[in-house]
Amino acid sequence: MTPISPSRIGMRPNLWTKGDWNALFGFGTNILVNMLVLTGLLQFVLKMPPDIVFGRILPAVGLMMFLSTAYYAFLAYQLAKKTGREDVCALPSGISVPHMFVVVFVIMLPIGASTGDPIQGWEAGLVWVFFQSFILMIGGFVAPYIRRITPRAALLGTLAGVSIAFISMRPAFEIFMTPVIGLTCFAIILVSWFGGVKYPKGIPAGLVAIAVGMVIAWGSNLVGLNYGGLSVEKLGDSFANFGFSIPLPAFDHVFHGFKYLGVILITAIPFGIYDLVEAMDNVESAEAAGDHFPTTRVLSADGVVSLIGCLMGNPFINAVYIGHPGWKSMGGRIGYSAATGVLVLLLAWFGIIAVLLALIPIVAISPILLYIGMLIGAQAFQTTPSRHAPAVVLALTPHLAAWAKLLIDNTLNLAGTSAQALGFDKLGGVGVLYHGLEVMGGGAILVGLVLGAIGVFIVDRKFMHAAAFAGAGAVLTFFGFMHGEKVGFAVTPGVAVAYLLVAGVFVACAKYAEVEKPAEEPLVEGAHPAPAE
Asked: If you ran DSSP here, which 8-state letter would residue 142 be given?
């Protein structure tokens, strides 16, 4: 981290630096991937009419993301001006990727299928975001306290789990499904962002990777190999969606969606809490990289911009993104965030997304997401004491369970069956402990946080703190926020009782056990110790 320069405190920070170009292309392509996936889900999974996709939803998405990125650039500007530092990097933000899939497959698709009307699925999605927005706004005032009492290894460990399971794995698979493009682009990115190689004229590595991927994909079409799945016909058809559309109020559609409130609240409340914890983790990640942003203002902003987007027709929640240290290491500062917002606004309001979907092979962009996953996974170990490494591993395991369960469920659904129909015993006979995945992976981000905190406090011999987190785990589990598929009463009582017994063990250790004192260890710069007894 650059030291504070007293002579620069209060001076006007630079709004754009050379490194912002790297971060713009890196983060911009990350956002582009998410928007391409989002558009594909709306068009091909939900069967949403093109006029709704390109005329209502995407313009509202563009507005929300512009407001979000502009606000976080403003927060970075304020921090840089206050401290006199020149290395402050704005928080990245955009559509919450895990929730993009949740709202599509858990809310919008089932309601659209049952009614035969995808518009009603869209309306239900709007209500889902409506409630999540308020959870974020209210939770913003609680989050700073949670950050103070929760060890960094727990916060970053559960974030590493999200990163490895839901950010890294799919791009890694896509890379090896089309290795001629994927591995080549991955190498281009790695040698630059990890290896320090600079490309001619300072061209950003992300842009080089995309350009090379396009050359290979379109060149392969000339010899009949068709790497990347692109075609001139698809490209020509995509121009039909060109046009200018601004977001329009969707109050009536939000109101109509309230008739599905009972179904929506089952997932809106726990996933709102998920967003709350994930945003805290990402703010903690930024602080570990040297940039301290006020948690309450960050979370409140997430809620406000999500609410604005919802009322204009966007059924996807905004989130502070994983990856701040990555964009900062590329040289990103203030300008990359605001510039990304302007770029998204242009893509969404002019219908350009459809053309890009037909022009760029997705596998050329996948390596950027894998790079971010690698960086965040590494940060959990690098910015916490090495003795907490086992707790980091413990914190990420629930996400692996949730990821494995998701793959199994999607596969069985495609085959027209389910794990329950096949029988847990039969699945167990071939090594698939489905019920274990289901219980451990339910509410994974909260499970990872609680288990990670317990692990840290055990390592540090702070057994009463460990008992407090085990007790909190019992309460959260009893009401379905952890180790369950829905919020309710006595959702998984056996697990809740187990947490209480574990808490009892820790209390007994604190009061009666003879405990060996842990060895002292210097902290990594930027890390902080767990709360004292």
From this structure: T
pLDDT digit string, tens, across residues 99-136: 777 788 778 888 887 788 999 999 999 999 998 898 88
- Compute the distance between CA of residue 501 and CA of residue 504 in angstroms, rounded to an integer: 5
* pTM (two decimals): 0.71
The answer for residues whose C-beta is within 8 angstroms of residue 365's C-beta and 6 or more apart is: 29, 30, 32, 33, 209, 210, 213
Query: Which residue in this structure is represented by tokens 């005329």?
Result: 55
448 closest CA partner among 266, 268, 280, 267: 280
Q: How many helices (DSSP H) and strands (DSSP E) are in the chain? A: 26, 2
C-alpha distances (whole Å) from 93 to each of 70, 184, 272, 425 are 10, 28, 16, 43
Provide the token pair at 124: 């239900």
Residue 431 carries which DSSP code? Answer: T
> Where does residue 168 rank: exposed (0-12), middle (13-18), buried (19+ CB within 10 A)?
buried
Confidence band of 39 (pLDDT split at 50, 70, 90)? confident
Query: Are the C-beta atoms of 337 and 69 separated by less than 8 Å?
Result: yes
Mean pLDDT estimate for the chain? 86
Write out 364-388 in H/E/C secondary structure. Answer: HCHHHHHHHHHHHHHHHHHCCCHHH
Question: pLDDT exceeding 70 applies to what percent of the chain?
Answer: 92
The SS3 call for residue 141 is: coil
Tens of pLDDT, residue by residue over 328-359, are 988 899 999 999 999 999 999 988 888 887 88
Residues 6+ apart with CB under 8 A from 71: 301, 305
| 3-state class (DSSP) for residue 95 | strand
Per-residue CA distances from 123 to 129, 132, 280, 291 (Å): 10, 15, 29, 38
Q: Label residue 419 by pLDDT band (50, 70, 90).
A: very high
Question: Which amino acid would we find at residue 30?
Answer: N
Residue in 122, 141, 65 with CA at minimum distance from that of residue 96: 65
* Confidence check: pLDDT of 527 > 60: no
Q: Please state the domain extents for the chain.
A: 16-380, 387-512
SS3 of 155, please?
A: helix
H or E, element range at 318: strand 318-320
Interval 158-207: pLDDT, tens: 878 887 887 788 889 989 999 999 999 999 999 998 898 988 877 778 88
